[in-house]
Amino acid sequence: MNLLANFLTGLSLIGGFAAIIYSLEGHFTFACWAIILSVIFDGLDGQIARKNPVPSEFGKELDSLVDVVSFGIAPSILGYVFVYREFYFWATLVLFIYLTCSVLRLAKYNITPKEKLVNYFYGLPTTVSGGVLASFILIFRKHRDLSPPPVIFLFIVLTLAILMVSRIKYLNLDGLKQVLGKSMPLLLVIALISIIFLPEITIFALFIIYLLFSPFVVKFLHFNH
Q1: How far is Cα of residue 89 from the mean position of the Cα atoms in its chain?
Q2: What is the set of domains in the chain, with CATH numbers?
Q3: Alpha-carbon distance 26 to 130, whole Å?
């Protein structure tokens, strides 16, 4: 189990590295999809790791280091090169803050006792923040005549950075399973069908729904336990 989980973590790292290379080469659509694939591999890795009766400290540290690359560095480079293409001080500062917050978020996760993370995380997961930025840019790549206004883009980046280091509670996969229950397979089928026909919008919408509504669901569950 640990070997398979680490293999999936490695695939997530490949996705993050590919996203960086694609961004520098100007292949922004490929870069976005590489990050989204990393999100999928990271989710699968987490599910398999949870099924292992003996937790792997190595796997835990490896996963966090890979997340820094795939959901911290890769989205930062993608956003900077796509929106600005040349040096811009405020973009550099905001994206550095985003990267710093993603590192802090992962470090905080590593030292948080697991009994406090039964159904939720503290702070927005880096996978979601990276996915939001990648899918946001993917929408603008679909409509090449559009480009995201720099101020709006920086506002989104800064908001994600603040959420990552906040004390706001977000559902983890176990929490999602508990909330969705038996309807989860049906919702997954609907989501997959939507992704086939409207991939960019559907993926962005899924991340935003999680970002906006997850804290309210956690609060509801907390008060009922």
Answers
A1: 25
A2: 2-223 (1.20.120)
A3: 18
